Structures are given as structure tokens and as C-alpha cells.
Amino acid sequence: MSTTAATHAEASRARRDLVSGEVMDEAGLIRFVAGPDGAVTPDLARKLPGRGLWVAADRASVEAAARKGLFSRAAKARLSAPPDLADQVADLLARRVLNGLGLARRAGELISGFEKVHAAVAAGRAAWLIEAVDGAEDGRRKLMAAARRQQNPPRMLGLFRSEELGLALGLENVIHTAFLAGRAADRWTSDVQRLSGFRPLFPEGWREEP
To answer: Residue 70 and residue 67: Cα distance in Å, rounded?
Structure first.
């Protein structure tokens, strides 16, 4: 099997959500495993040993699985799932998304700074427009206006503070960032989509900005 075919097969693998019973693509699920002490552990990279326990990637499903003892039922063993398991998953996903931005910058797939980001958006090269949630409104509005003029506008992420973005990218005063379209952006998007089931990707008020 070619590398491309193997990658496609892995991406399209289906699993059963233990809450709804529906068979879903792995991309829309969170994998959990039982630790040595019987604690339910999130496995976002899907690499930990042990039988996978799969739950839809949204807060309500993870909370229901923990509250109703569905992990124990699926594993046919006594497992403990903490009540804040959904918060743990959200935090881990957010960290994974930030780490992905750092990797993208080092690979030349991510650019920052208003002028560079505006040029990438205007040229239709940006898959994602990533704005610091505590950044100034004026620059964000201009970039969002440029994005709306595109036939295929970039998606928006406004979840992290400037300091968080700066730590992830190894830069200071990070406000405006663009993830360039390509395979790296496609892979990163999978984690962002899972995170969207636990946290809004940007403040609701941004939808109303002209």
C-alpha cells in the first residue's frame, strides 16, 4: 500500500462511539484507554497501549460517558473517570493545537504580522486566520474583511491570548497569524475541529463585527 493510500485509510477508519452507539470516523472521536490504576486516560495521539474506548469529540458526550459509567461498561472492568474529564480533554487538545502552530512555524507553514498575514489572506493562501483573543479590534476587523472577500475564505481561530501564541511560536507580541493552506493545515484542522466540541473557537461577538 502506498503512503498516500495508507494515510487515507488511517484517516477514514471508523469506530463506535460508546455513548450514542453510532459508528463514526476516528477524526470525530476521542480515544481513551484504561491506565494501570484503572483510571480513564485521554489518548489524543491514539498511540497508547491497551484497548481503545472511543467517545464523540464533544463535551456533552465525554461528560455523559464519565457520569453514566459507560467506560466501565464498554471495558467490562471497573474503571474510574473523573468528573472533570471533559475539561482535561479540552486542555490537552488546546495544548496540542498550540504545539501544532509551533511546528508549522518551524516548517515555514505559518506566518505572523499584520502585513504578511493580510497579503496571504488577500492572495487566497491562508487556510486559517488565527487572531489573539486579546488583540486590538481594528487590525482584526481589517483582516476579517479581507477574508470575507475571498471565494474560499480562511477559517477563524480566536481562542488564545497573545502570550500563549507567543510561547508556542517562540515570538513576542503575536497578534495576527495565518496558517497557510496545505497538508500541514489539513492535519492541524483535525485537532481544531475536535477542540471545537469543547470550546468555542472564537468569541461570539466577533461574528457581529463589520
So the answer is: 8
Contact 92, 116 (CB under 8 A): no
Three-state secondary structure call for residue 84: coil
pLDDT tens for the chain, 210 residues: list them.
333 333 344 446 899 999 999 999 999 999 999 998 999 999 999 999 999 999 999 999 999 999 999 999 999 999 999 999 999 999 999 999 999 999 999 999 999 999 999 999 999 999 999 999 999 999 999 999 999 999 999 999 999 999 999 999 999 999 999 999 999 999 999 999 999 999 999 999 898 666
Question: pTM of the full predicted structure?
Answer: 0.90
Q: Cα-flanking dihedrals φ and ψ of residue 129, to 5°?
A: -105, 120
DSSP label at residue 135: S
Residues β-bridged to residue 90: none
Distance of CA 130 to the CA centre of its chain: 13
